[in-house]
């Protein structure tokens, strides 16, 4: 067992050695520009890209012609939202999304607002799921796009994608999903799920950083997005720029491996996640955040009341995890995702996200449980709030001086 | 963000963790910060008849720098007169612990806790609280 233990697989994943192996020739011997049509160097590179396009398409049940390679999911989200807004502005100017989206979606929507678009940011229920009735009530004849993430990066909840896309289509809008955390972890099928645009990333599925894709539906309906980068007209004119061939080959290989191993991996990880969660919620005043039925198999987000997340992470220095506390940011604002579930600020500050992955072992999970328990207990010994709680003092009755 | 060795030392081996009898007239208690902000410090001092701080204890809910700042504060307070304790400046803590700019608020909170504890002691003993007009760095 190597210390520190990596349990932050929602942030990024280590690259699978099999992915690296597939990529290597494309840095050196197969270095050609995939757009060079006149010689074998270009053809070989193009072959690599075409094969990767098939591998990516297969994982999400798409046609390979529907895959646009990008520099990552942030670019895919931007291209989808801004590109749809520009392309369909004659049809309407309203976009619906949710408050728990990734910043790439939220900030792209803010950009659209600056361009004169209208954006509705739907709240979520206490369990992190979208309320379908609230979504339907927000639909207008002007709505051109509904963008709801597939699986949440902080709490792992899986949105009712089929139902959401059905509502979008009922009102003539397109449905887009940021599926970065879901693709490769759970079955995603663009046709069964009614998805028109889908953003995915390689580095969350054991592939390289700096490469991702946007799925853009070609049939029923044929969807188009306005390019956000001008140039050589690559990727069916939707994304110019010389293709990152080694990265794309890596993304393809990563998708293929996920397709082969996802089912058994999901089972293995959910067993480990449940083990971790049940061992940690034995601790007094600890709570699991988000819906526990509809969620990704590898994520646990737990609040340990009366200890602060960043301090806790420091005690758990042998574990690489992430916290909803944002003591380092100037604003001191805790996670907006946790707050949108209705969590009070202090509980949001007390949260830790454990993200298990392909290379996480049971031994590591057992160790993580021990370290976390000891750290929580240690910090509670130091916590004036814990002492007050134990003395039966209602913390809400105290007049705190906010600073 | 990397923590300085001194922060790690105070965090790993915090000095003077605990609770003094807050009903005693010799004890001053300062409770500052707010749970919503992710920082709460409780700092207590015990003062003898010569206005010298003989003991100091703390408990802190917060990040590593907040815990280290309050631990350091208790170390500095012991043996100091009340007058000298009032002179502890948050920037002294910043310097000693090599806190980065985003953690300066932890030192501010520690200074506030010291002043709040002293004033609690003063009020308990029939003295007027000292108003601090200092603008924090």
TrEMBL record, chain B:
Pfam families: NifU_N. GO terms for biological process: iron-sulfur cluster assembly. Residues 2-125 form the NIF system FeS cluster assembly NifU N-terminal domain. Keywords: Iron, Iron-sulfur, Metal-binding. The keyword Iron applies. A scaffold on which IscS assembles Fe-S clusters. It is likely that Fe-S cluster coordination is flexible as the role of this complex is to build and then hand off Fe-S clusters. This is Iron-sulfur cluster assembly scaffold protein IscU.
């Amino acid at each position: 067992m190597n210390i520190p233990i990596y349990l932050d697989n929602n942030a990024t994943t280590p690259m699978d050695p099999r992915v690296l192996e597939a990529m290597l020739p494309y840095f050196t011997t197969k270095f050609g520009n995939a757009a060079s049509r006149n010689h074998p160097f270009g053809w070989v590179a193009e072959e690599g890209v075409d094969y990767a396009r098939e591998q990516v398409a297969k994982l999400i049940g798409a046609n390979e012609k529907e895959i646009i390679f990008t520099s990552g999911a942030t670019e895919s989200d931007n291209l989808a939202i801004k590109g749809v807004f520009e392309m369909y502005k004659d049809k309407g100017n309203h976009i619906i999304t949710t408050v728990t989206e990734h910043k790439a979606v939220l900030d792209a929507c803010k950009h659209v607002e600056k361009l004169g678009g209208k954006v509705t940011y739907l709240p979520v229920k206490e369990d992190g799921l979208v309320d379908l009735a609230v979504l339907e009530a927000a639909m207008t004849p002007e709505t051109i796009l509904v963008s709801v993430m597939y699986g949440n990066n902080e709490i792992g909840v899986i949105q009712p994608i089929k139902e959401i896309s059905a509502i979008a289509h009922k009102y003539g809008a397109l449905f887009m999903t940021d599926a970065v955390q879901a693709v490769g972890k759970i079955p995603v099928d663009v046709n069964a799920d009614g998805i028109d645009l889908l953003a995915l990333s390689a580095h969350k599925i054991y592939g390289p950083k700096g490469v991702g894709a946007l799925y853009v539906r070609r049939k029923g309906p044929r969807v188009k997005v306005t390019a956000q980068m001008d140039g050589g007209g690559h990727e069916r004119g939707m994304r110019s720029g010389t293709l990152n061939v080694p990265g794309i080959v890596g993304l393809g290989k990563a998708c293929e491996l996920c397709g082969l191993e996802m089912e058994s991996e999901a089972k293995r990880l959910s067993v480990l996640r449940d083990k971790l969660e049940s061992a940690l919620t034995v601790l007094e005043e600890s709570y699991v955040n988000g819906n526990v039925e509809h969620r990704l198999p590898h994520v646990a987000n737990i609040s340990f009341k009366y200890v602060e997340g960043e301090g806790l992470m420091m005690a758990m220095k042998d574990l690489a995890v992430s916290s909803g506390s944002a003591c380092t940011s100037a604003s001191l604002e805790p996670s907006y995702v946790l707050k949108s579930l209705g969590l009070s600020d202090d509980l949001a500050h007390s949260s830790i996200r454990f993200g298990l992955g392909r290379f996480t072992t049971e031994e590591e999970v057992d160790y993580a449980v021990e370290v976390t328990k000891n750290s929580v207990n240690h910090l509670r010994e130091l916590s004036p709030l814990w002492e007050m709680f134990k003395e039966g003092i209602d913390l809400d009755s105290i007049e705190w001086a906010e600073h | 963000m990397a923590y300085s060795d001194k922060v790690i030392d105070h965090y790993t081996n915090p000095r003077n963790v605990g609770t003094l009898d807050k009903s005693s007239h010799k004890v001053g208690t300062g409770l500052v910060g707010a749970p919503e902000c992710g920082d709460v410090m409780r700092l207590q001092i015990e003062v003898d008849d010569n206005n010298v701080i003989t003991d100091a204890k703390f408990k802190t809910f917060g990040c590593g720098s907040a815990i280290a700042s309050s631990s350091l504060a208790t170390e500095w307070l012991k043996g100091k007169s009340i007058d000298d304790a009032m002179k502890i400046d948050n920037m002294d803590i910043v310097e000693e612990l090599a806190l980065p700019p985003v953690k300066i608020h932890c030192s501010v909170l520690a200074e506030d806790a010291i002043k709040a504890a002293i004033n609690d002691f003063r009020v308990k003993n029939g003295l007027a609280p000292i108003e601090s007009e200092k603008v924090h760095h």
